[in-house]
C-alpha cells in the first residue's frame, strides 16, 4: 500500500485534499500497488502511525511552490502559490519515511520538497538565474506537447538510476519553474541536465529505495521504458517492505 501526498485546494466554499489522477494511475499501472491518499493535515497527521501502515510513499508534483522560509530564503513568489498544509505534512513525512525505511519516490514538487527536507535550497525562478536552459513548459501547448520529452539527463554511474537504464543518458520531460540550488545534506546526485542542474537524487545510505526526480515519470508510464523502470523498481521496494512487515 502506497501513500500519495495530497495538495490542499479550496473547491467552492470547502477545503479539499486532492491528488492528481496521473500519479494514482502511475503507481497502479507502473508499480502494481494499492494507492491511498494521505491528507495534508500538518500537525494533525500522526506521521509515524501513518507510515507504519504504508509500504511506500509517493510525493507528487504540483503547481504550488515550497515556502522559501523553509529553506532560509525570502519570498519572491505570490503567496497564493504556496500550499502551507502540504509543506507542513510532506517535510515531516519525508524525514520519518527515510528514517524508518519506507521506500520513497518523489516527483517534481516532491523532488523539490525532499531537497528542502534535507536542508537544501531552491532557485525560486530558475529562468532568471542565468546559465540555465528553459525548464518550464509552454502553457500554450497541448498537454501531450507539454509532457513530451524535452531534454537529456546524464545518469551518474553507480547509483539507483544507473541500475535502471542502459546507457549514460536518458530523455525526460521538463515542467518546472524552480530548481535545486544547493543540494541537501546526505543526498547523492543521480542525474543532471546538460546545463548542470540536478535533475535526480537519492539519499546516501538510505535503508530502502529512495529516488527523487525533477521530471514526470508518471506521464504515460506504460509507454516509456525508462519511466516504467523507475515505477517498477519503486513497486518492488514496496513489496519487499510489505514482506518484511508480514503484509506481503
Ligand atoms: N511548482 C514547482 C513544481 C513543478 C511541478 O511539480 N509541476 C507539476 C505540474 C502539475 C503536475 O504535473 O502534477 C515548480 O514550478 O518548480
From TrEMBL:
Enzyme class: hydrolase
Keyword tags: Hydrolase
Enzyme Commission number(s): 3.5.1.94
Pathway: Amine and polyamine degradation; putrescine degradation; 4-aminobutanoate from putrescine: step 4/4
One Gene Ontology cellular component: cytosol
Pfam family for this entry, one: Peptidase_C26
GO molecular function, one term: gamma-glutamyl-gamma-aminobutyrate hydrolase activity
A single GO BP: polyamine catabolic process
CDD domains reported in the protein's UniProt record: GATase1_2
InterPro entries registered for this protein in UniProt: Class_I_gatase-like, Peptidase_C26, PuuD-like
Keyword Amino-acid biosynthesis: no
Function: Involved in the breakdown of putrescine via hydrolysis of the gamma-glutamyl linkage of gamma-glutamyl-gamma-aminobutyrate.
PANTHER family: GLUTAMINE AMIDOTRANSFERASE PB2B2.05-RELATED
Name of the protein: gamma-glutamyl-gamma-aminobutyrate hydrolase
Lineage: Bacteria, Pseudomonadati, Pseudomonadota, Gammaproteobacteria, Oceanospirillales
